[in-house]
Amino acid sequence: MDTVNKQLTPKQRILKTVDRLFYQQGYLATGINQIIAEAQVAKASFYQHFSSKESLVLEYIAIHNAEFLNHEKQVEKKFSEPKAKILALFDDLTDFAQRTEYRGCPFLNLTAEFSQPESKPRQLIAQCKTEFRIYIEQLVSKAIPGKNNSQSSIATAIYLLYESALLEIRVHHNLWPIEASKFAVNQLLS
Amino acid sequence: MDTVNKQLTPKQRILKTVDRLFYQQGYLATGINQIIAEAQVAKASFYQHFSSKESLVLEYIAIHNAEFLNHEKQVEKKFSEPKAKILALFDDLTDFAQRTEYRGCPFLNLTAEFSQPESKPRQLIAQCKTEFRIYIEQLVSKAIPGKNNSQSSIATAIYLLYESALLEIRVHHNLWPIEASKFAVNQLLS
Amino acid sequence: MDTVNKQLTPKQRILKTVDRLFYQQGYLATGINQIIAEAQVAKASFYQHFSSKESLVLEYIAIHNAEFLNHEKQVEKKFSEPKAKILALFDDLTDFAQRTEYRGCPFLNLTAEFSQPESKPRQLIAQCKTEFRIYIEQLVSKAIPGKNNSQSSIATAIYLLYESALLEIRVHHNLWPIEASKFAVNQLLS
Amino acid sequence: MDTVNKQLTPKQRILKTVDRLFYQQGYLATGINQIIAEAQVAKASFYQHFSSKESLVLEYIAIHNAEFLNHEKQVEKKFSEPKAKILALFDDLTDFAQRTEYRGCPFLNLTAEFSQPESKPRQLIAQCKTEFRIYIEQLVSKAIPGKNNSQSSIATAIYLLYESALLEIRVHHNLWPIEASKFAVNQLLS
DNA sequence: CATGAATGAGGGTTCATTCAT
DNA sequence: GATGAATGAACCCTCATTCAT
Fold this sequence. Notes:
Helices cover 74% and strands 0% of the residues of chain A.
């Protein structure tokens, strides 16, 4: 297959492989055999680095969350005005979603594959999403410094609109949800 | 198992069984063997009524969509004022979500399990969601008769807020997303 | 599907359908479901006319044998000289085998699918082949009236060469076996 | 079942088992479940060594072909005169065919079970048969060194007569085809 | 005479994980 | 630290046949 760089360590090769496979095929549809075949790693080596498939997905989630939050901060930096920072998140999403291989939010896709709310992946993803919501709250608090009472409500609503954009791009395989949610965000911030 | 009423026809027993299993466990995690065991139907009988597991889920989706739209219309009827009809959708959601077995929107859960956007279940669910969006548009057009230009944008935003409520109730295993989306809907409609 | 003429009786439709399917796909690979679907006959109707799949194949063999022997006699009639009559069988085979859908001898294909020599299909096919061998013996007895001792041996050898032509056309997916066997037949008859 | 020696490796046990089952029952009539039960191997172990049932039969064919060609060369060695070497093939066949478990040529039986000429088993078997035909050609070229023109034609005819002997032993469940083909071979070589 | 629903047994294949080396 | 063989359970689906209607 030669789908991964053999100079990476086995663990890195595995993580790089599932980065692609979990996102393109989903968690349940991606088997251990496919992972080790494409990562060019022995089966026993896999279990030396990850105690189970679930522990792999947990690491995958954690890595993605760090990358995501970091990316958002990079995007934010480009603008000085608080409101512009918020809207930039939606514009950045447009860029992302236009890629042909775009398949929605990896976290939202994953969370739907675990039926138990108490499962570790579900809990971890909920944490990540909460982190993101708090991040938006901070942006909002700067954008509308006076209206202290409704700040939090507006921030949560913006978070929900961002989430629904992520979701509905995938549902409808179309970009209109971004514009629609951006419209509502503008209304809420004015 | 005796989990279903034997007086129903095998096809009815199957549909009744997956109504529960697909929602509680998901599509991929629910195997044909479990379905036929709990429906008390022979394997070959299953395939007499459904050409494949996919065709079963398509029927399951169609049935649920009809029931959902009908239910929404029943809810709407209870109110005379247009804006109240819209907000009633969210209040009704609160009732639903308070049930212990609530696991989010069956359609959104399902659509995440199919990686191919062109797959029939994904396309059918997108259709159902579009139907629902149009339904909301009709409600909104009555609620804000004057503002013709932004009617459609507001309706779409309300649809997105409803969707994100459905989604985030599941993500966070909590009801706060309903209040947050309702708050934004009120803002948009005022 | 509309693959058969509905004006035929159900039994005729079944026989016409398996005529195609048994030859193109083989006996084991052709399921009852496919037969009744393409013959447009109800499953219970099938079992009203044929007590089992085996009894169907027996009837199929009998019909084909009658048609085959009749066809050979038609071919033979075109020639007056005994030796020419024999060689005509091979030339006729060339015509048949050039059809794209040619897949070898239906009887030889079938007999390989039944592992038990005592099975009825195997026994019936052996009978058919014996009938054909005797037919060739009669042709040979006219072609070499003098050499009474070796007549039978030569006839059997010609039968074997015809059979191997049938077989090897299929094995090698090529027509050269006909010419090779014809060459040997000429040697034996000179 | 205890039908195989547990000291062999699983792969060896599988090959030993199908050596018997494919020959006695045929390819289609032999299921994976029976193979693994009699080989005393877990199902997943089977698929570790063979990617599919088809790949197993390909290996089975290759092994048998090597054994067959080797055996023929052993038989040939026993005679010094070229013509005797050829006739020895037929006498050796008589020995083989007298065994009670004799069921004809494994390759010819198998090839009839695959309807597609382009299928790998069919192609591999055609190759094996070609190899054997060339082997006979070499023997014939030594037996009739002078008649260069007809050497190839005679060799091919002898190949066909050997094949039809193999075939018709099975068809008629009787040994007379060997004598008949041997008679013709003698005629062609004299 | 004709029907379609229902069946038990089996088809080939893949799952996540463990083990001895 | 790395390996590949081995596993039991489960995957979705099809088989030829029988039954009540």
